[in-house]
Amino acid sequence: MEPVMASIPDIGNAGMGISKDNSAEVEQFRCCVDEIFQKVDELEQKVNEVEQFYLNTNKKQQRSSRGSSFGKERDKERHVPSIKKQQQDASRREAAAAKRMQELMRQIGTILRQITQHKWAWPFMQPVDVKGLGLHDYYEVIEKPMDFSTIKNQMEAKDGTGYKNVREICADVRLVFNNAMKYNDEGSDVHLMAKTLLEKFEEKWNQLLPKVTEEEKRREEEEAEAQIDMQLVREAAHAKLVREICNELYEVDTHLEQLRETVVQKCRKMSTEEKRNLGTAIARLSTEDLGKALEIIAQNNPGFQAMAEEVEIDIDAQSESTLWRLKFFVKDALEGQGKSAASAGGNNNNNKRKKEICDAIAKTAKKKSKKPSS
Question: Distance between CA 228 and CA 78 in Å, rounded?
Fold first, then answer.
């Protein structure tokens, strides 16, 4: 049996009827196609970027789905801030937060002065003189030494190495006294002094703690709000990118359509033999591809009923544009069918509609063969 593709030759310059003298015109077409490929690659990268963004966004939304419905409704009503406004808001928030933190630092500084002015505070004001006191096992017992002079230096540091919040100060104050109680026996004077001053500090710290907790909660809310604003800005930017992609896709589609029409117009007229082969090839299409072929015919034939129960195709009545479009489509479709048939063992069952259309094509060809020659 003759191969299916024997009736549809490869489409090159000769197959399209473009002469070798028009090589410059062919090269122009190739340049246009290259430009389209490049544009499609750029669009594909943009689409991947948008897809990745929304995939990450969905994951974050799933993780944060524990939020209240009130918060979600409020987020929906939030206006999308500009980048400039967001930067201004962030600067204002940071300035206000820094001012509030300075006030908390001032208050805990007052507490430390009260503690260090106590008559029992003197053993804890400077680092322990390990060598002078002969405390050879001190560093084996105490992992992190601490004293109030070190705390003061940390509080006054201007190079960014100082304390970031009052809880860090509180932790080091506790460390001063806990180290002393750990190294010195419970009945010793230093142990008793450290325990007493620690209790006084905890009492004063508990008075400041509500303000510290309130500030931490406020900072957390502000950071969450800033993240929402940033997410809205990103979503707005990607929404704009999606609109740009849609516009660019429309331009590419328009360009392709114009290029296709130009190529079709440059094609020579199809011979009688080629039309006959095309009709035979159409009859070999799958049901799905056959429907697409009928749609191609219907595009340039408003009266053609592609979805009718019985369809009769008159190949000779089709325009050159329709014929060449059909030839391009049928060639690709049959190549695809050949690959599918090879992988599926060659099983190819056609439905009733395909058989009726094939019969109609054969019927038309038979009528034309019976016409008397002039």
Answer: 9
pLDDT tens for each residue of 28-82: 777 777 777 777 778 778 777 777 777 777 666 665 554 444 344 444 445 555 6
- R_g (Cα) of the chain, nearest Å: 42
d(CA 25, CA 20): 10
Contacts 24+ apart (CB under 8 A), 35-38: 36/252, 36/255, 36/256, 36/259
Of 205, 267, 234, the C-alpha closest to 82 is 234
The beta strand positions in the chain, using DSSP E, are none
Among candidate residues 360, 367, 362, 368, the one with its CA nearest the CA of residue 310: 360
Phi-psi region of 346 (alpha: psi -120 to 50; beta: other; left: phi over 0): left
Residues 190 and 331: their CA atoms lie apart, in Å, by: 97
The one-letter amino acid code at 290 reads L
Longest CA span, the chain: 133
Distance of alpha carbon 198 from alpha carbon 59, whole angstroms? 46
**Residue type, position 98, single letter:** A
**Cβ–Cβ < 8 Å for 365, 358:** no
Integer Cα distance of 44 and 210 in angstroms: 54
SS3 content of the chain, % helix, strand, coil (to 5): 75, 0, 25
Cα–Cα distance measured from residue 40 to residue 281, given in angstroms and rounded to the nearest whole number: 31
| End-to-end Cα distance, the chain | 35
Contact 308, 360 (CB under 8 A): no
- Tens digit of pLDDT for each residue in 236-287? 777 777 788 888 888 887 877 777 777 766 667 888 888 888 888 888 888 8
Q: How many CB atoms lie within 10 A of CB 94?
A: 11
Annotate 103-142 with DSSP letters as a single string: HHHHHHHHHHHHHHTSTT-GGGSS---HHHHT-TTHHHH-
Q: How far is CA 281 from the centre of its chain?
A: 44
Instruction: Tally the C-alpha atoms within 13 A of residue 192's C-alpha that lie toward its C-beta.
Output: 4
According to DSSP, residue 163 is labeled -
The DSSP output letter for 302 is T
